[in-house]
Amino acid sequence: MTLRTYDQAKALLEANWREHDWFYCDTRVIGHYAMKAAICQRYNPRRVIEIGTRCGYSLLVFNAVAPRASFLCIDGCMDADSLDCLAHAKHLIQRHQIEADLVVVDSHAIKSLPRACFAHVDGDHSFAGALADLRLVAHCRAILADDCCNPEVARAVDVFSREANRQVEYINDGLRRVAVLT
């Protein structure tokens, strides 16, 4: 991650953080999103699939480093604050004129997705749910799996990487552990 990526993520996130979000925008969180942006930038994607959009924070930083990309964002609306979070994500899409489709559906009801270069998986954090989400984006050149600090998600990444014959790079940014599968 470059200083420019961190500073860019910091400015974007602080200016666009959802008021009263329980997930606080502090230096560790900014570093986490800056690291994810740097990973996205590494692959220079033209089409991105995101499973688990929540408030749109990842989408915002991905768009900053891949401004010509189009995004398919999927969220299951499964948390108590999901409606407020998704309204915030929709606001960010409009405000920043991001080429994104936001679909509210349980990803486990989806049988296939369109082609994409890059996928961000941050949806269901159970073993079965994370594995199903990874399989859903198996066609993507690179997959960024968040929350691998969760043993269920880490196990799903390990199983998926073996069955799909993917290389895994684990990155611990001090807040969360992510996996990059190529």
**CATH class descriptor:** Alpha Beta
How do the helices and strands follow one another from N- to C-terminus? Answer: HHEHEHEEHEHEE
Structural class: alpha/beta
Tertiary shape: globular
Q: Give the CATH architecture.
A: 3-Layer(aba) Sandwich
Q: What report would you give on this structure?
A:
With 182 residues, the chain is of the alpha/beta class. The protein has a single domain (3-181), classed as Rossmann fold (3-Layer(aba) Sandwich). It has helices at residues 3-16, 27-43, 57-65, 82-95, 127-136, 151-163, and strands at residues 47-51, 70-75, 100-104, 118-121, 142-145, 168-172, 177-181. The chain has a 7-stranded mixed beta sheet with strand order 3-2-1-4-5-7-6, sandwiched between helices. It is globular and about 40 Å long. The two termini are 19 Å apart. The model has no long low-confidence stretch (mean pLDDT 96).
What descriptors fit this protein?
182 residues, alpha/beta, Rossmann fold, seven-stranded mixed sheet, 7 strands, globular
Layout of helices and strands, plus pairs?
Layout: H1 3-16, H2 27-43, E1 47-51, H3 57-65, E2 70-75, H4 82-95, E3 100-104, E4 118-121, H5 127-136, E5 142-145, H6 151-163, E6 168-172, E7 177-181
Parallel strand pairs: 1-2, 1-4, 2-3, 4-5
Antiparallel strand pairs: 5-7, 6-7
Helix pairs in contact: 1-2, 1-3, 2-3, 5-6
Summarize the structure.
42% of the residues lie in helices and 19% in strands.
